[in-house]
Amino acid sequence: MENEADAFYRELPKVELHAHLNGSVSVNTIEKLISRKPHLNIEHGMTAIGKGQRRTLDECFQVFKVIHQLVDSEEDILMVATDVIREFAADGVKYLELRSTPREEKRTGLTKKGYIESVIKAIKNCKSEGLDIDVRFLVAIDRRNGTEVAMETVKLAEEFMQSTDGLVLGLDLSGDPTVGHGKDLLPALLRAKNCGLKLSLHLSEVPSQQEESNLLLSLPPDRIGHGTFLHPEMGGSQSLVDQVVTNNIPLELCLTSNVKGQTVPCYSKHHFQYWYQMGHPSIICTDDKGVFSTNLSQEYQLTATTFGLSHEAIWKLSQQAIDWIFAPDAVKQQLKQKWEAMKPQVFK
């Protein structure tokens, strides 16, 4: 039986701003994908990190490689994106920005354009089903693929931004943080910014990236993913913190992901506390709800129990996330009205 505390977090209206599509695939969807491709001999343990388990960052990226083997056609992407959106909606998420790197697979005829089109189709299908969730898409640059591919990705994102009536509204920079350097991606990111795409950049995910973080903060990005090692106590610097604070750049914080990926030693030492106590915009997110066996309700509950936050403080945290979505002000206003309308029901 669900207790009252669990019910509060599930009924809490939520905003999810850092969710990688392939990392958000649930056990149920993985099951469907495995049954379609038995020849791959993939088992559940290869696609998710269970309760109490941890992996190195490198091992986490190996998990994505396995999932990519299962998701390699337009049909797969449509199913995966549809399932992921439905699951976020069932968890009380009212606004979702999904992100993913468009891939091509010669064997199945999948193109990068077809990849994005399949995600857009899933978003539109879920809308026509009447799901109470507003979904947008951020096209992701994988830093491992270098300058040229990054520029191609931006051009693709630009094209979809103009043709999808606001469904594609930004760009994510992600991929293995130990590979490549931000300076090689700067031309693509500048082009994206200049054409009106919003930027959410994975930044300072691993130690000793001060130079790169400094460079990328000079853009500046509209939001930061993780930012684990920005502050001096974690090997960052006061000057990095000052840039983030001066530009009021919100952080997308993913507690379970960081603990299971071992970039943070334990929940109580998560950098959420550092930024939250400072009053800096901090958004609770899942990162990869499938891979890390979590959901957004659980992440809010973990935040509350770890840092002693009241229901009122959690409500405020959830509501303030609306200010940092990439959709226009009219959408923000609608969401704020929805939150106000739902408040009596959640605090009943």
Automatic annotation (TrEMBL):
<dbReference type="GO" id="GO:0004000">
    <property type="term" value="F:adenosine deaminase activity"/>
</dbReference>
<dbReference type="InterPro" id="IPR032466">
    <property type="entry name" value="Metal_Hydrolase"/>
</dbReference>
<dbReference type="InterPro" id="IPR006330">
    <property type="entry name" value="Ado/ade_deaminase"/>
</dbReference>
<keyword id="KW-0862">Zinc</keyword>
<protein>
    <submittedName>
        <fullName>N6-Methyl-AMP deaminase</fullName>
    </submittedName>
</protein>
<feature type="domain" description="Adenosine deaminase">
    <location>
        <begin position="13"/>
        <end position="338"/>
    </location>
</feature>
<comment type="similarity">
    <text>Belongs to the metallo-dependent hydrolases superfamily. Adenosine and AMP deaminases family.</text>
</comment>
<dbReference type="Pfam" id="PF00962">
    <property type="entry name" value="A_deaminase"/>
</dbReference>
<comment type="subunit">
    <text>Monomer.</text>
</comment>
<dbReference type="GO" id="GO:0046872">
    <property type="term" value="F:metal ion binding"/>
</dbReference>
<dbReference type="GO" id="GO:0046103">
    <property type="term" value="P:inosine biosynthetic process"/>
</dbReference>
<dbReference type="InterPro" id="IPR001365">
    <property type="entry name" value="A_deaminase_dom"/>
</dbReference>
<keyword id="KW-0378">Hydrolase</keyword>
<dbReference type="GO" id="GO:0009117">
    <property type="term" value="P:nucleotide metabolic process"/>
</dbReference>
<dbReference type="GO" id="GO:0006154">
    <property type="term" value="P:adenosine catabolic process"/>
</dbReference>
<keyword id="KW-0479">Metal-binding</keyword>
<keyword id="KW-0546">Nucleotide metabolism</keyword>
